[in-house]
Design brief:
There is one protein chain. The chain is mainly alpha-helical and 137 residues long. The chain has seven helices and three strands. It has a three-stranded antiparallel sheet with strand order 1-3-2. The longest helix has 19 residues. It starts with a helix and ends with a helix.
Length: 137
């Protein structure tokens, strides 16, 4: 028990050091804004379903018709949601003849997940990094 208490005291000594000396990495305000916009877009149930569907077809993507067929969302509504996801950079779109192919932008998703991971799993240890793998299963 004494060793555990000493270890805890050492950890507590480290935290004020970083705060007092301002050598903690500050998050770029543009990344915060971009991430907030992406979370806002993902906060809609249809958009979240669209993202999950597009991830199943990564990296090739899906046509609008295929997404519509999978999710049974009216064309005009689907178009609106895809446009919002495109605006915040969560999906990519490419034209192939008369078809539009949508795919999940995994770099953007990686940035969103990394934004959360930095705080919860590295500095504060609110969630152990090993648990992230467990959560995703």
């Amino acid at each position: 028990m004494p060793r555990r208490k000493e270890a805890l005291e050492r950890r507590l000594d480290i935290i004020p050091y970083f705060c007092n000396h301002r050598n903690m990495k500050k998050v770029d305000p543009l990344v915060v804004t971009r991430t907030a916009d992406r979370f806002s877009a993902l906060g809609s149930e249809p958009r979240l379903r669209i993202m999950r569907t597009l991830l199943t077809s990564h990296p090739t993507g899906m046509t609008v018709g295929e997404v519509q067929e999978d999710l049974d969302i009216p064309a005009s509504t689907l178009s609106h949601h895809l446009e919002k996801l495109k605006q915040v950079g969560l999906v990519n779109v490419r034209r192939d003849g008369t078809f539009l192919w949508y795919s999940a932008n995994t770099d953007a998703l990686r940035e969103v997940l990394g934004f959360l991971y930095e705080e919860c799993c590295t500095r504060s240890r609110a969630v152990a990094p090993e648990e992230i793998v467990q959560i995703s299963k």
